[in-house]
Design goal:
Blueprint: E1 4-10, E2 13-19, H1 21-26, E3 36-37, E4 42-43, H2 45-51, H3 54-61, H4 86-99, H5 112-119, H6 125-136, H7 142-147, H8 166-172, H9 179-182, H10 195-204, H11 208-231, H12 237-256
Antiparallel strand pairs: 1-2, 3-4
The protein binds zinc ion.
Amino acid sequence: MEPKSIYGLINGCLVDLHYRQDLAAELALSKVANLINHEQHSWKKDLIEHVFSPSTAEEILSIPLSINGGLDVLFWTTDSRGQHTSKAGYNFLMHQASREAPSSSSFVLFTAGFWKGFWASTALPRCKQVSWRVVSGYLPLRAKLIRRHVDVDPGCNLCAEESETEEHLFMHCPSTCQVLFASPLSLRVDNFLTFADFWRHIHELHDSEVMALVQTTIYMMWEARNHHQFQQRPSSMEDILQRVASVQAEVRVGASAPATIERNVAWCGPNRGTYKCNFDA
Ligand SMILES: [Zn+2]
């Protein structure tokens, strides 16, 4: 029998699934659960490679499985309440289409005005750089590394409950989701459908202090994640907010410090019997 072609969602991407309908029927494969080895929390690799086309099998096998083996629940991750609506579905597909456009990256999701306000903020350059990588989708998050076939654990290393994506790490992770709300901004990130919506909202406030505070907080959340991952040093929400406050204080001191006065020093020749060498770094 010819391979049957249907469309399905794999890792949030619409893909063409080719599978052998006769084999699927023969092996009574009607659910995704039939493809999972539940004791070992792993895919049934041989079975998948037998039933699906090589490209589809590769896509399926690249999907991370829960390491905790939790119970299945119906949950729409792009909605803060976990519920699917047609509007949320439409926004999700538009978001995916933008990400996969030939011009690539989430740059297409933001206007030139957004980026002007983004770079004009008073945050430290390193905070703006990391935030730029977050907005542009360039952070080496585990979910991305897995798609590039890097052998890493796909789970968030702060909570081990979900895949590590921008949305998870900065919006939904139990370890960080309260940080922006507890900050002087009192921002509820779960009010936003996507992370891009969150950034657009910040831009539309047209307040460079707010943009700077968000960029600094995002930087500190990323730093906390790295401390936890590479140095096994966990950070509490209070630790992150404390670091944000100290960086903000540093920025304010720098802004109010008097500018260095440049003095014109007239060149004079060397003393008798000595040489003088002038050079520039
Ligand atoms: Zn997490």
